[in-house]
Amino acid sequence: MSPLVRSIALASALLTAHGCYVEPAYPMYVEDGTADLVEISPGVEVIADWDEPIFFVDDFYWVFRGGFWWRSGWYGRGWERAGVVPERIRGIEHPERYAHYRPQGYVRHEPVRGGFESHTQYHATHPAPSGVHIRPAPHAGSGRH
Q: 52-68 pLDDT, tens per residue?
């Protein structure tokens, strides 16, 4: 391991140990309007068929990484370790089970270009099967619920 790589690894470990989070290299840039939220229980949604289980509760996105809950206003980046975690999030047993979650009847569609408004229009013209709650994933605090 080169000295540079060793230094980066050490700095990352120290930041994580002190409650900071270094964005991992694997998340790709996520264009606005590409993900669907599906309801898994009242007030709790998860991004459907996503590589990592990311939940949406109380106007924030939540993910469980490294033994801690992290939150962000956007599912693609900006994660910070959560201080207070809502009961609806803490009550999720085995959050890892929601990776690639698809409720019965859910069909993944191609990414919708044009952002949130275009994605909303897509769902207006392509209704979900009966009993399945699907909506585009908004930026938190956008008032788009």
A: 999 999 999 999 999 99
